[in-house]
Write a structure and sequence with these properties.
Helix content is 29%, strand content 20%. It is α/β, with parallel strands linked by helices and 403 residues long. Strands 3-2-1-4-5 form a 5-stranded parallel beta sheet, sandwiched between helices. Helix 6 packs across helix 7. The chain is elongated. The termini are far apart.
């Protein structure tokens, strides 16, 4: 005769009594989920693990230091029976049956009136898997679904309770595998995506056909500055009731003008969520084998924008102070001005022989690395035809991997 399947149901245990018998490792694993569900847990056991004792001391549950007694299930909605005495488990299970209390038994699933599924939770979605008497299979299926929800390969878009707004998502340095789990999940829920050219472009091809993808570089600017036009587009789409993802390269708040966009959205009364990203200032050197800090070599690193020349009055960078530092200097957006930057650093005290590495298209298929010194980097960049985007690393850490 085929095994009868269980009927799945979600229990709402907030403020409701749950009896737990036993204090071993099984109980230690199961308690966090019961507590997270808001259950009023009464634990009965002569001894418990240190972790369970800590929960009791923190007031998360009530612990009665004794064995099971008939009547312990009075007022309970749910019971977990997990002592190491089968006779006690059987007696408690019988009382639960008599009182019509759903009861899970760790020692005998067939004698239980309820089974605990393998569960996982992702962004408000609870995944619960039951495969009869094969808990390892349940866990494997659970893990597969949870991982797919986390990385966005399995989407679960909201249809109720969705709210328009904007998420400023840091897409990382370019490799689509380096976007954060949360960023990819929000991208899968977007109605509109306004993307920078340095974001993870491959992910845009995975979006459903109904998602409107807008290239930020092609937004009509008219009389407005480029950034102002982007801000206006974000506000316009959100006010139209859409969920908008502003997909940016690296981290939104590392030379990404994310702060300006967040401020503009807040001023317009638009809800905004900021999702940090993996900044190219650290990830691109790492992908090229360069640690920005290394014991005995560099205990500090400084990230600087090179989009304004050192002698430009608009520059906010204290180049003499940077030249005096002994740590690593990471330059972003500096390819076109690397000659002037290198000369300035040398003029203010950095040795001309200081190692420099230029990493073009870091983490992408076209990644390449050009090594030089402050004295030669301008010539090497010209000879090799290095183009943006590229990250430039100045300091002795450049030679760590080679050494």
């Amino acid at each position: 005769m085929p095994e009868q399947p269980a009927y799945p149901v979600g229990l709402r245990l907030t403020g409701r009594r749950v009896l737990v018998l036993g204090g071993g490792t099984v109980v230690q694993r199961r308690l966090p989920a019961l507590l997270a569900a808001g259950a009023d847990v009464l634990l009965v056991a002569p001894e418990v693990t240190p972790a369970v004792e800590a929960m009791a001391e923190a007031g998360e549950l009530v612990w009665r230091r004794r064995g099971y007694r008939p009547g312990d299930l009075e007022g309970a909605w749910y019971a977990l029976v997990a002592t190491d005495d089968p006779a006690v488990n059987a007696a408690a299970s019988a009382e639960a049956e008599e009182r019509r209390v759903w009861c899970v038994r760790s020692d005998d699933a067939e004698a239980a009136t309820a089974w605990t599924p393998a569960t996982g939770r992702v962004d408000g979605v609870t995944v619960a898997v039951l495969t009869g008497r094969d808990p390892r299979r349940s866990a494997a299926v659970r893990d597969g679904v949870v991982e797919a929800l986390r990385d966005g390969t399995l989407t679960a878009p909201r249809h109720r309770g969705r709210h328009p707004g904007v998420a400023l998502v840091g897409g990382g340095p370019g490799d689509p595998d380096l976007i954060t789990v949360r960023g990819r999940r929000l991208l899968a829920e977007a109605d509109v995506v306004i993307a920078d050219r340095l974001g993870p472009r491959d992910l845009l091809d995975e979006l459903p056909p109904h998602v409107e993808v807008v290239d930020a570089a092609k937004i009509p600017y008219g009389r407005a500055m480029a950034q102002e036009a982007i801000n206006e587009a974000l506000v316009e789409h959100a006010r139209a009731g859409r969920f908008v993802v502003r997909l940016k390269g690296g981290d939104p708040y590392v030379f990404g003008r994310g702060g300006e966009e967040a401020a503009a959205l807040a001023a317009a009364g638009v809800a905004v969520t900021v999702v940090p990203g993996v900044t190219s200032a650290i990830s691109v050197p790492g992908a090229a084998g360069i640690p920005v800090t290394h014991r005995g070599v560099a205990h500090e690193f400084t990230v600087v924008s090179g989009h304004v020349a050192p002698d430009d009055p608009r520059s906010l960078v204290d180049w003499p102070a940077l030249a005096a530092l002994r740590g690593t200097l990471v330059l972003l957006m500096a390819v076109e001005r690397i000659g002037a930057i290198a000369d300035t650093l040398v003029r203010h005290g950095r040795p001309p022989g200081t190692p420099v590495a230029v990493v073009q298209e870091g983490t992408m298929a076209g990644q390449r690395r050009v090594d030089a010194t402050l004295a030669t980097v301008a010539r090497r960049v010209a000879e090799e035809g290095v183009r943006p985007p590229a990250v430039i690393v100045v300091g002795d850490v450049v030679r760590v991997a080679a050494g």
